[in-house]
Amino acid sequence: MTSNPNKGLVMVFTGPGKGKTTAALGAAVRAAGSGLKVRIFQFIKNRDTGELSALAHVPNLTIEQWGGGMIGRAGPTEEDRDRAREALAEARSAAESGTYGLIVLDEIGPSLKYGLISEADVLTFIADRPPEVHVILTGRDMPEAVTNAADTVTRMERVRHHYQAGIKAQKGIEY
């Protein structure tokens, strides 16, 4: 087994359980604390959250929401697609800039599921990034081709979730 300390890893946090974004944010804070510049792109999300407030004060870390909010029953709008494509293009530019050691694509799984961006574009992003840049991709319903392109895949499994008992999302826990 050969070790390459400069190899950028591709990590996927997926599955129906809680904790995918939380795990990615923890890894991002660790990376920033270790001196890597980190840029987090939140797809779909567009609301004031605890992570936006807290991470605004973390050196070496930038977090941005590029979404229009939840995708309704009518499905995504063209604006949703435009925002997702712009976010991925900006993530590609950030990765190629030589500035960032870690790029996080949060909620990229649902973005793929809803057709906001193409699987081919995400796979190209992974393959074409500079080899030393780490990437974390999060979200439910991650396509098999994306998980196959990853070095590490963690699947969050739901054993029990408070939503099942009718307890709504709580500030500081879910957002």
Summary tags:
Rossmann fold; globular; alpha/beta; 6 helices; single chain
Structure commentary:
It contains 6 helices and 6 strands; from the N terminus they run βαβαβαβααβαβ. It is α/β, with parallel strands linked by helices and 175 residues long. It has one domain: P-loop containing nucleotide triphosphate hydrolases (Rossmann fold). Strands 3-2-4-5-1-6 form a 6-stranded parallel β-sheet, sandwiched between helices. The longest helix is centred in the middle third of the chain and has 19 residues, at 78-96. The radius of gyration is 16 Å and the shape is globular.
CATH class: Alpha Beta
The CATH superfamily title:
P-loop containing nucleotide triphosphate hydrolases
CATH names the topology as Rossmann fold
**Overall 3D shape:** globular
User: Helical proportion?
Assistant: 25-40%
In the predicted model, the low-confidence regions spanning at least 5 consecutive residues are none
Mean pLDDT across all amino acids: 93
Q: How many separate domains make up the residues?
A: 1
Strand fraction: 15-25%
User: Over the alpha carbons, how many angstroms does the gyration radius reach?
Assistant: 16 Å
Structural class: alpha/beta
The major pleated sheet works out as:
6 strands, parallel
Distance between the termini: 41 Å
Order of strands side by side in the largest beta sheet?
3-2-4-5-1-6
How many DSSP E strands? 6
Give a brief outline of the structure:
The longest helix has 19 residues, at 78-96. With 175 residues, the protein is α/β, with parallel strands linked by helices.
